[in-house]
């Protein structure tokens, strides 16, 4: 591969990290000792065995099929985009960015890999790894949110400063960070693609984690659209507002027995059933529903 071609192939990441290509070494299959040139834009061939993974890598999952496809491409055409490493000692390096490319290269049986060699302390490594992944990789929404939160916590950034670093406005950063306030089960569903970020943003309109989890289960079970979820959330908000305005005297603390009955009914109807018991033993049972379909489901269970 010619020097000019290798420089062109490395231009994308070079531009991201404000690098200017300077020096390149010709690629060899298994050189006994690879000579490297440190510098912000120097592209070198280094042994994969001399590279350790980045402890600051924000990505936690890699699609096996996508990795295999990239590996097959590397076998045929080589690695187009160099990785970025920092030198730890003589011939030891630590990955800054490009773990997906490194993994795919290992799958392809590559012995040496093109790389930029940078000088960076731990804080710089964290920032470069996070920004490179956020801007260049398809992180899921939870991984992006965790990356944002980590930059805020470990780099002492404000949301406005973070937005400037990752080229996103503050409202976008805020929306991602709010996802981390959702119950863990919902965060997992976002991470796994079971629900979208639009669904999650609608659920954030509910104050109660119980309500959030209930509607989340309905999204999974019934495949609800974002618009439908937004409608359900509005209904819950309106019901909660009406309940606060009412002066209901049937609000005595529930005994253990009554609480257990309420929990059992909630489980049976897959709804947030409420038992309200007055001081004289009278009371009522509320079985809320969030849509016509939900009402029909409950009526069928009651043999109505």
TrEMBL record:
UniProt keyword Cytoplasm present: no
Bilayer-crossing regions: none
Keyword Transcription in annotation: no
Keywords: Chromosome partition, DNA-binding
Region annotation Disordered: where it falls in the sequence: 1-40
GO biological process: chromosome segregation; positive regulation of sporulation resulting in formation of a cellular spore
Family: Belongs to the ParB family.
Name by which UniProt lists this protein: ParB family chromosome partitioning protein
Originating organism: Mucilaginibacter yixingensis
Lineage: Bacteria, Pseudomonadati, Bacteroidota, Sphingobacteriia, Sphingobacteriales
């Amino acid at each position: 591969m010619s020097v000019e071609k290798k420089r062109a192939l490395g231009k994308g990441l070079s531009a991201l990290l404000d690098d200017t290509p300077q020096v390149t070494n010709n690629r060899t299959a298994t050189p006994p000792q690879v000579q490297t040139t440190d510098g912000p834009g120097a592209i070198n061939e280094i042994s994969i065995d001399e590279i350790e993974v980045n402890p600051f890598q924000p990505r936690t999952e890699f699609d096996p099929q996508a990795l295999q496809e990239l590996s097959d491409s590397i076998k045929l055409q080589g690695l187009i985009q160099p990785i970025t490493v920092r030198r730890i000692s003589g011939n030891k390096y630590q990955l800054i960015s490009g773990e997906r490319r490194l993994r795919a290269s290992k799958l392809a049986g590559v012995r040496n890999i093109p790389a930029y060699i940078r000088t960076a302390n731990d804080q710089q490594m964290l920032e470069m790894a996070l920004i490179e992944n956020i801007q260049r990789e398809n992180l899921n929404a939870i991984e992006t949110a965790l990356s944002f939160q980590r930059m805020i916590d470990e780099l002492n950034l404000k949301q406005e400063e973070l937005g400037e670093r990752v080229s996103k406005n503050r409202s976008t950063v805020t929306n991602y960070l709010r996802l981390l306030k959702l119950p863990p089960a919902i965060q997992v569903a976002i991470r796994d693609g079971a629900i979208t970020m639009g669904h999650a943003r609608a659920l954030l309109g509910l104050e109660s984690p119980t309500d959030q989890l209930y509607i989340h289960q309905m999204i999974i079970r019934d495949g609800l659209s974002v618009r439908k979820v937004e409608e359900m959330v509005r209904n819950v908000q309106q019901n909660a507002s009406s309940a606060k305005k009412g002066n209901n005297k049937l609000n005595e603390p529930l005994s253990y027995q009554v609480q257990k009955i309420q929990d059992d009914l909630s489980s049976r109807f897959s709804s947030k059933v409420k038992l309200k018991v007055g001081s004289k033993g009278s009371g009522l049972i509320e079985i809320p529903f969030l849509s016509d379909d939900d009402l029909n489901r409950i009526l069928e269970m009651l043999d109505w």
